[in-house]
Amino acid sequence: MNKLAAKYLRPSQIPTKACHGCGLGMIENWLLQAIDELGFKQENVIFGTGIGCVGRQTFATWGGDNFGATHGRALAVATGLKLAQPDKKYLIVVGDGDAASIGTSHLIHAARRNLGVTVICEDNMGYESTGGQFSPTTPANYVTNSSPYGMAEPGFDPCDVVKAAGATFVAETTATQWHQTVKIVKKALQNDGFSFVHVRFPCNENFGAYALGTRDTLKNLEWIYEHTQGRKPDGSETDFTWETGIKHDVSNSRPEFSKIMRDMNARVQADMAAKAAAAAGDDKTRDDGHGTH
Ligand SMILES: Cc1ncc(C[n+]2csc(CCOP(=O)(O)OP(=O)(O)O)c2C)c(N)n1
Ligand code: SF4
Ligand SMILES: [Mg+2]
Prior knowledge:
Elements: H1 3-8, H2 24-38, E1 45-49, H3 52-58, E2 65-68, H4 73-84, E3 89-95, H5 96-102, H6 104-113, E4 118-123, H7 158-165, E5 169-174, H8 178-189, E6 195-200, H9 204-212, H10 217-229, E7 245-249, H11 257-292
Parallel strand pairs: 1-2, 1-3, 3-4, 4-6, 5-6
Antiparallel strand pairs: 5-7
Helix pairs in contact: 2-8, 5-6, 6-7
């Protein structure tokens, strides 16, 4: 068995429930590598999952504490957890449907608040667990189960959205960039505030079958590699290119949300204590006054 899987994952969750050749296991392995290289203790990392294949296949795989919540609400649950246990690291994996469509409002407001979590958006370019319907990250003109004549809508970039909302670390990679992804996830986890990493990966079963006409793992990975490089093997340009790398890094530049709330709580407590002391003083003065007349 893979050493990182043996060290960090629950034996009951191995082997993976994902389809043969799915990129989800590969990305989870890279997340484990980042945690391992940072030397984080298992008990200090809490792993959250969302809806879809990304949520289902990785749910409770982490050997430490886990939570799952669907349609963006992993971030709502994470907000409560972070307030209660601010010193833990939160690593949350969500799909493109979850992050860029069904649960986007949670994502935007977690970024705006600079909530101290790292969100990995594992993007297979569609709603794959439900049969391969298009999502906001399906490339324009590509065929899916719900766009038999091609995706009619323009694409949507979740990195742009979270950056505009206030995320303090934003990056993009693909499943053909092992070392770059590990490096980026390590940086993301070292930001006290909101980090977002967008990783495209192959779903052979649905996206591959509908959009690329093949369930062959290597052909799906090759297609991702070509669109990461912007070049086909014959040297010609691909129909579009994903720009990968760190897109925005102002890590640790503004206070993390739970810290703001804790500081405010301390101020409120001090204010209430001062008001209670002042009120007790007034009562005593009145009592003393009554006693002398
Ligand atoms: C309100 C609502 N709408 C639709 C669904 C069906 N549904 C469940 S998972 C899912 C797709 C999730 O897509 P994504 O987050 O990209 O995950 P993937 O399966 O592709 O990994 C959908 C549409 C649902 N459960 N609830
Ligand atoms: S349907 Fe696609 S994303 Fe889901 S487990 Fe299978 S290959 Fe992976
Ligand atoms: Mg998806």
